[in-house]
Amino acid sequence: MDMQKIGNFLTELRKNKNLTQEELGDQIGVTNKTISRWENGNYLPPVEVLQILSKFYNISINELLSGERLDCEHYKENAEEYIVVDLIKKRKEAKKHIIISFIVAIITTIAGLSIVLLSALLDTFIWLKIVSIAFSIIIIILGIGVCCVLTLDAGVYECPNCGEKFVPSMKDFIAGAHTLTKRKLKCPKCQKKYFCKKKLS
Ligand SMILES: [Zn+2]
Fold first, then answer.
1. In angstroms, what CA-CA distances link 46 with 6, 42, 43, 84, 85?
2. Cα(104)–Cα(98) distance, rounded to whole angstroms?
3. For residue 118, what are the CA distances in angstroms to 2, 87, 128, 137, 138?
4. Each residue's pLDDT tens digit, 93-140
5. Bridge pairing between strands 156-158 and 165-166
6. Ligand 1 centre and the CA of 193: distance in Å?
7. I need a surface site. Which of 79, 134, 150, 195 has the fewest CB within 10 A?
8. What is the pLDDT of residues 3-48, one digit of tens each?
9. What share of the chain is helix, strand, coil (3-state, %, to 5)?
10. pLDDT at residue 152, rounded to an integer
11. How far, in Å, is the centroid of ligand 1 from the Cα of 197?
């Protein structure tokens, strides 16, 4: 994505309508400074604004992001490019989530177990032992919860029977027996439970 080109294009579109940065800002509800940042290529307008601008200038978001008006052939090419960029970004994020969730799982398990061990070994009051063991169990459960949210978030599962890709509900996800890469889940299409493989995108 060429930010400078997008900025120049935004400037051109605005000037074609004979608007100052201030006038445009008034129309779409932002300050002239914000408009200036977009036109300088420092920032990309957020998606909601891209939608507004696309209607305002009667131009597609694809064209706004390409920094030019597109003919049919280029239009297709560019649209595909953005989809690919988006997919790569999602895949990277998914991988990051999985790594973080492993780290969280390891840390919370170690923390929880060491509290249990310590309280068992130390010669202290019974109630203190019970409290610390309860505390560590809570830590472990919370840790597992965070992991579930993070890994559920990352990617989809594929039904081995029909190939349907789906995101399971949190309840199914937690209840499902699993290996490192597969989890027993109900396919929304077949309505049967299979060991579904995790796909990152
Ligand atoms: Zn299926």
1. 13, 13, 9, 19, 17
2. 10
3. 57, 46, 11, 14, 16
4. 777 777 887 788 888 888 888 877 877 777 777 787 788 788 888 888
5. antiparallel
6. 8
7. 134
8. 899 999 999 999 999 999 999 999 888 999 999 999 998 888 887 8
9. 65, 10, 25
10. 64
11. 12
Q: Which two tokens stand for residue 111?
A: 């923390």
CA atoms within 13 A on the CB side of 6: 22
The answer to whether residue 201 scores a pLDDT higher than 60 is: no
Q: Which two tokens stand for residue 162?
A: 């029909």
d(CA 162, ligand 1 centre) in Å = 4
Q: What is the mean pLDDT of residues 169-190?
A: 80
Q: Which CATH class is domain 3-70?
A: mainly alpha
Please give the distance, rounded to the nearest whole angstrom, from the Cα atom of residue 91 to the centre of ligand 1: 23
Ligand 1 centroid distance, CA of 195 (Å) = 11
